[in-house]
Design brief:
heterodimer, A: 120 residues, mainly beta, four-stranded antiparallel β-sheet, globular, B: mainly beta, six-stranded mixed β-sheet, 49% strand
Chain lengths: 120, 107
């Protein structure tokens, strides 16, 4: 059974940093691109970042470029999102999601999400 | 960047009704379009990819169509468990943008 478990969320002050993790199991992690999608309270889904299976290709939405860094450790079956210079508008539930496995970035499995709150 | 829009933003229909949601891309994306369902308080679920391919396990009352810039998600015979917000998403190239969502409830 595919499982994605996010951790690392919490309350942080504007300008602060946070590192999210996603522990994957039930599939060959190193064969899949992985992604972060967020959802602000009461709002829609927003794609944040994607990383290919070997980390060769990395993509970000414009609003997080230069502030967020996606990475992965295939030996540990883990995905990460380092978030720096956090802003109030980064407040959201952050979901880890697996892509389809064919370098096609639609998402067939999602974690339960971790809440990030940026507030003073 | 390509923008995604959806219409309507919300709708209310009766059980058994046929429901149609439209998604439009500001530029052509071929058939690189997915649909997701998010029930209240739950995680998004993939319904359809490649514009019209039903994800395994998804009820056959859901169907998708379209190519290029205009796409449709249809729910044949709406059921109470279909109350949710539905999102389209483009994946032809980054950014892998979601539409704003369509909220569906029961009349």
């Amino acid at each position: 059974e595919v499982q994605l478990v996010e951790s690392g969320g919490g309350l942080v002050k504007p300008g602060g940093s946070l590192r999210l993790s996603c522990a994957a199991s039930g599939f060959t992690f190193s064969s899949y691109s992985m992604n972060w999608v967020r959802q602000a309270p009461g709002k829609g889904l927003e794609w944040v970042s994607s990383i290919s299976s070997s980390s060769s290709y990395i993509y970000y939405t414009d609003s997080v470029k230069g502030r967020f860094t996606i990475s992965r450790d295939n030996a540990k079956n883990s995905l990460y999102l380092q978030m720096n210079s956090l802003r109030a508008e980064d407040t959201a539930v952050y979901y880890c999601a697996r892509d389809s496995g064919s370098y096609l970035y639609y998402f067939d499995y999602w974690g339960q999400g971790t809440l990030v709150t940026v507030s003073s | 960047d390509i923008q995604m829009t959806q219409s309507p933003s919300s709708l209310s229909a009766s059980v058994g009704d046929r429901v149609t949601i439209t998604c439009r891309a500001s530029q052509g994306i071929s058939n690189y379009l997915a649909w997701y369902q998010q029930k209240p308080g739950k995680v998004p679920k993939l319904l359809i990819y490649a514009a019209s391919t039903l994800q395994s396990g998804v009820p056959f009352r859901f169907s998708g169509s379209g190519s290029g810039t205009d796409f449709t998600l249809t729910i044949n015979s709406l059921q109470p468990e279909d109350v949710a917000t539905y999102y389209c998403q483009k994946y032809n190239s980054a950014p892998f943008t979601f539409g704003p969502g369509t909220k569906v409830d029961i009349k």
